[in-house]
Amino acid sequence: MTKEDCQKLVIDIISDIAPDEDLSAIKPEIRLRDQLQLDSMDFLDIVMELRKRHGIEVPEADYSHLASLESCAEYLTPKFPTKA
Amino acid sequence: MSGLAAGIRLAHFGKKVCIFERHNAPGGLNGFYSFSGRKYDVGLHALTNYVAPGVKGTPLGKLLRQLRIDRDEFALCPQKQSRIAFRDCALKFTNEFSVLDAEVTGKFPTQTAGWRALVQMVRTFDDVALDAPPRSAREVVGRHLTDPLLADMIFCPVMYYGSAQERDMDFAQFVIMFKALYLEGFARPLEGVRVILRVLLEKFRQAGGERRMQCGVAQIKEAQGRAAVLVLDNGEEVTAHQVISSVGFAETMNLCEPPQSHAAEANTGNLSFVETISIFQRQPAEWGWGDDTIIFFNDAERFEYAHAREQVDLRSGVICLPNNFDYAERNLTEGIFRVTCLANYDRWSQLPEEIYQADKKRWFPEIVRSAQRFLPKVAPGVLTQAELATDMFTPRTIKKFTGHLNGAIYGSPRKIRDGRTHLANLYLCGTDQGFLGIVGAMLSGISMANYHVLQASTRG
Question: Who's near B30: CB < 8 A, 6+ residues apart?
Fold first, then answer.
């Protein structure tokens, strides 16, 4: 799992939970909230979908790591099992 | 409906969910019923909170996202226009807020600054905070709108469409309703509330949720401060890690064992309503009733939203003409005319059956006549000639079919915003949690499922 793959997984999730948002030009270094209309309910959904689809746990105290695509990748990539 | 929304969220994220419903039809206060071959919506005059496609960040958009519903599935058709009609003054409003703004500033020029300040305050108010202290809406609004007529007119629809409190309401509730009615707007699927229910039921089924119909919860047994066992109407016992109740605060307290009757009594609503429904073989537009979708009327000196002293309080009410939504080229095949007025539960509930039926017959034309004062004049005989069927519900009907104590459609006067109860794993959703209307009902279920179950599961 590369950081690029990880960003792609997060974008996939956002496109499912917020299909009315245009995700074609998201800047990875800028906060998602500043580019998209996402509220705390949507961020909870990102956390819940990560658990449902990839078995990854994001404890409530770590929600802030999901602020931008870049910080998502930084935080989440090590949580994916490394391929043998 | 709130329970279904909660169930969809939880089932979608892999929780094992079962919904217990005492009736044979889903939806609760937002359900429908069949009578003499016709389907009638129970509560739906209009879905509030309507915004045009593309408008984001409002309750409708939030619930569509949270339940993974495409807005086309609800097939919402916007209203044409509505009116607040008082004795000597009327304010028109539509799904464009500028229409109401122009009406208010045109008819109450001295109130313009206060009105605009109030609107600004509503727009920026955090109405979904689960821990806001209660404040009197009459007091806050009164500081901005010093003309009591204007204040009464603004309060009339806001109270009729969701206040469980007499004469006043919590300012947070006022804000929710002001946004839902005036800043957003009204819409309806052509086929009514069952379109929405159908979508929810299908989502719940797809997510793996289970439903048990005609299978109410008779008792919630407590052990060590938790809801330990649910006893069903058929005597069966089930257990669950968490229980979300959508039957109302007092009604839930009354199910608990040991009983919580003091808590129930201290927060039981007493505002109830009657509604007349007339079905016509022609469109109401044919006799000049084709413009207004909803009319909120009052002819008393001051608008009094309170427990009716007589069986029915004819001074004010709400008219709904479901034919007057913009269904594009289509419309309902029959004309429908509904009138709602405040009513007194005790004076309906204690009557022997024969007198009850006679009283319904007696009040029906009185209510229709009262409403007609606020509609374009119709030549005598036109309505009766076009009439195919009528139905009427009273506070007694509401109690019988929804279980709401005192027939109180809007539930308890004090809302439990965080949904917590005296039991650690028992939560409330629906009208007594305090989000209002059909969109509010769904958002209530969503919020409670999120807050108490999903988010809690990441707290570690």
Answer: B1, B42, B43, B44, B193, B196, B197, B438, B441
Note whether B286 and B383 are within 8 A (CB): no
**Cα gap B257→B151, rounded to integer Å:** 44
CA dist list (Å): B8 to B50, B204, B281, B305:
22, 5, 39, 36
CATH H-level, domain B2-76+190-240+428-458: superfamily? FAD/NAD(P)-binding domain (3.50.50.60)
Contact residues on chain B for A48, CB-CB shorter than 8 A: 13, 454
The answer to whether the beta carbons of residues B450 and A44 sit under 8 Å apart is yes
- Give A 22-81 residues with CB within 8 A of chain B: 37, 39, 41-42, 44-45, 47-48, 51-52, 57-61
B68 Cα to chain A: minimum distance (Å): 7
Give the ipTM of the model, two decimals please. Answer: 0.92
Which amino acid would we find at residue B12?
H
d(CA B459, nearest CA chain A) in Å:
5
β pairing state of B272-280 and B387-393: antiparallel
pLDDT tens, chain B, 460 aa long: 999 999 999 999 999 999 999 998 898 888 888 888 898 888 778 999 999 999 988 999 999 999 999 999 999 999 999 999 999 999 999 999 999 999 999 999 999 999 999 999 999 998 767 677 889 999 999 999 999 999 999 999 999 998 999 999 999 889 999 999 999 999 999 999 999 999 999 999 999 999 999 999 999 999 999 999 999 999 999 999 999 999 999 999 999 999 999 999 999 999 999 999 999 999 999 999 999 999 999 999 999 999 999 999 999 999 999 999 999 999 999 999 999 999 999 999 999 999 999 999 999 999 999 999 999 999 989 999 999 999 999 999 999 888 899 999 999 999 999 999 999 999 999 999 988 889 999 999 999 999 999 999 988 6
- Please return the burial class of B420, using the count of CB atoms within 10 Å of its CB with bins 0-12, 13-18 and 19+: middle
Sheet holding B272-280, edge to edge: B90-93, B81-86, B292-298, B312-320, B335-343, B272-280, B387-393
Domains belonging to chain A, first-starting first, are 3-79 (1.10.1200.10)
pTM: 0.94
> What is the C-alpha end-to-end distance of chain B, expressed in Å?
30
Contact B65 A41 (CB under 8 A): yes
CA-CA distance, B354 to B227, in Å (whole number)?
42
